[in-house]
Amino acid sequence: MSDGVVETRASEVSGGETQTVDVAVVGAGFAGLYLLHRLRKAGFSTVALDTANDVGGTWYWNRYPGARCDIQTVDYSYTFDPELEKAWQWSEKYATQPEILRYLGFVADRYDLRRDIRFGTRVLGASWDDAKERWLLTTDKGPAVSCRHYIMATGCLSQPKPPEIDGVHDFKGEIYFTSRWPHDGVDLRGKRVAVIGTGSSGIQSIPIIAEQAAQLTVFQRTPNFALPAHNGPLPADRAAQLAEDRNGLREQARWSMAGVPIPPATDFSWALSEAERRERFEKLWASGDLVGMLTQLWADQGVDPDGNALLADLIREKIHEIVKDPETAAALTPHDHPFGAKRPCLDTNYYQTFNRPNVTLVNLRQEPITSITADGIKTDRRSFDIDVIVFATGFDAMTGAIRAVHPITGRGGKSLEDVWANGPQTYLGLTVADFPNLFLITGPGSPSVLSNMAVSIEQHVDWVVDRLVALREAGFTTIEATETAQAGWARHMADCATVTLHRLANTWYTGANVPGKPQTLMPYTGGVGPYRGICNEIVSRGMLGFKLSGPNGASQCNDGEIVRLQPDVRLVLNMLAEMNLPPIESMGAAGAREFVAQFNATRPPGRPVGEVKDGTLQGADGPLPYRLYRPATPGPHPIVVYFHGGGWVLGDEQSDDPFCRDMCRRSNMIFVSVGYRHAPEHRFPAAAEDGYAATRWVAEHAAELGGRDGPVLVAGWSAGGNIAAVTCQLARDRGGPLVGGQLLVCPVTDCSFDRPSYTDNAAGYFLTRGLMYWFWDIYCSPADRTDPRASPLRGKLQGLPPAYIVTCEFDPLRDEGVAYAEALAANGVPVGQLKAHGHFHSSFTMVDVVITGVGGRMQMAEALQAFTQSAEEGESQEINAAAS
Ligand code: N01
Q1: What tens digit of pLDDT does each residue of 351-363 get?
Q2: CA-wise closest residue to 655 among 741, 705, 718
Q3: Ligand 1 atom closest to the CA of 178, numbered from 1
Q4: Average confidence (pLDDT) over 383-396
């Protein structure tokens, strides 16, 4: 068998009558083939339909020169059958398209799949018949298909995008699309070739086309990041790992973030020296590993623009080292998106190709194409005579193949086209409400293109087929996502997206490459392993978010949202649950303090600030330690007196270190974190009185501390929020100091435990009701609890400084925080509120662990700045009034 040619022995179906099967599959690529195998083994009658004339899917069509895998092929393989794994050996680290196509042909033959595939057949329409509970598919060839279940295995990148350039039809030369490359190849020798597009397809094909063509002109609109593949045999260490523990590696891949068995970096960029960062980078650059470069350098590269810029700069440096002409190097260097936000590429001699005398780069950002003419391509500056145009212009990704293949009509005549008019709506990327028994493999809303597709495909296929089997066993005939579940998934998708940098790039991930396409981040960014966990949880929670129905009115609907927590909060809570820790309140105060110290020692280090200085201030009954965080910018700065959390029992002036650093940087203010006294050694009102005394001391020593003139601000988290709130009341009542504003993060404001949040979040969110009872008991006798210095909500609330109050959805203290905000507002105090959905009590202080807290901390910093600004405006108004 020659390269790229796979034996064809397709199923023969005559036209006329309808073909009736249990399950119809569209697509005979990686997903379609595995589906056929699993469905058949599960006893379902099945047919697959594909417009191609053979198996292979994307690998059938994308035959352009240089087409290869860019995830190591040993990972980009089926893993469902150990015998198959033994029977096939990849010849290279990154296999070529012909080899991958041969592999898929080998799989089709090994499991005798072709007999259930109708090749060269396009599905023209699919409609759901409510009465029969079946889908009817019409086709352009052969009989229509009636099926109980309809599965789209159409791939994410299979609908080529039109080039959208005027005059294409006028061109007299040859035109090729990388995505539809002729099966017999193309002879480019001696020709003047143009390649339009510099995504993965362009970047893989350009070096090879340059070797063949007389002249190659590359038309580049957006430069992309590319890394050298350093292809060759599978690296010896990978081969050894596989030989030693293939199953272990496969399992690791299934539960990883990207579907590849490599652990992500845990060190943060700011904890590494420049030399260490460079060393890590050079090692990965030399190894030729895209997923490695995306995940293994430092932990913040994919979530923080600053951490990402450090990496992007190193790649930019490489481009300038490789490309000799500085102008060309500059044009090839990406500056408009973070590394990884747009799909980066793996190349072989891509940048080197621009040193060849027969290659020219045209920077379309400087001279856009105006038209294609009979003889070539015109930009707004010049004309290029061209014999062959290669469009490497990409795809209408993720939704294109589903929407463009045919109209899909669901329950009540609903059209998928209409439902997706503003972007794809799915539950898990697998199902769509009102489209019963329809499944999408690696659809929009699943990890899909942000993962190793082979791993994601196996997970989807296994999940779907297992559900169909379970449905059959339970006697149900339909399965359908609920609207609630689908809307919840959209929200979870949006939450996940805020963690990533994808929002900072215009890409096919968001639909930005197709004019007029609604823009939304289509793949699920929460990771392969977490996604798998969610799919499993849906099953273990009784098919949460699905309606099932069967004969004689049998039905089951377990409505709800599968993930209401922020994605990283969910990970943290799952991790804590797995640790199976004893309740903190069972440890005693000393044991609990020891536990908190150990716990804090494992968290990522805080980010650098201008200066961190320890000192001593005067508390209510003697000296207290403090830690001061100063911004790196020139002072003087406004001062925030900060009170740490810990239930008046735990913690110290250093225990909220990452939060203080982060807020110091974001607000550009000095944070003075106070080591107030703790219970049980010092019970109520020691902490409250220390808070007030410390604030007075800081205000009196503001100039020495580098503070700006004007009122100080106070802030605190949890019990520290309580102390900050109490301090404001005491400062008002005791003649100062002047407090310009109060930032209260998940504060304790009242001694009543009957608000709904105490019941709803009593357990499971780290700060439990039991722990709060314990804190109160240690700090304050029942008789003292209604004292406003313990329960500020019960104090006088007029005349207090403006407040910004942060509450978290999954926190027992949520409702008392909201109650305090409402009560302050009712008493004329200006109040801003942040009600953080999906967050728990510790979200905002777990800086760099709960990345979704960044937005909230930005708002807190803005609130602090607004306090200062309004205090300054107030002062200047007073001065003006006095002057006039
Ligand atoms: O498509 P792309 P692709 N005028 O969309 C440009 C996977 N894949 O086929 O960025 C001028 O990435 C467009 O410019 P801009 C992989 O996931 C994998 O290369 O929109 N230029 C861009 O440069 C990949 O990401 C492998 O400004 C126009 C290019 O065309 C995905 O498939 C190999 C234009 C399109 O790049 C798609 O890759 C190949 C116009 N009118 C592909 N319209 C592996 O290695 C578009 N462009 C496994």
Answers
A1: 999 999 999 999 9
A2: 718
A3: 9
A4: 98
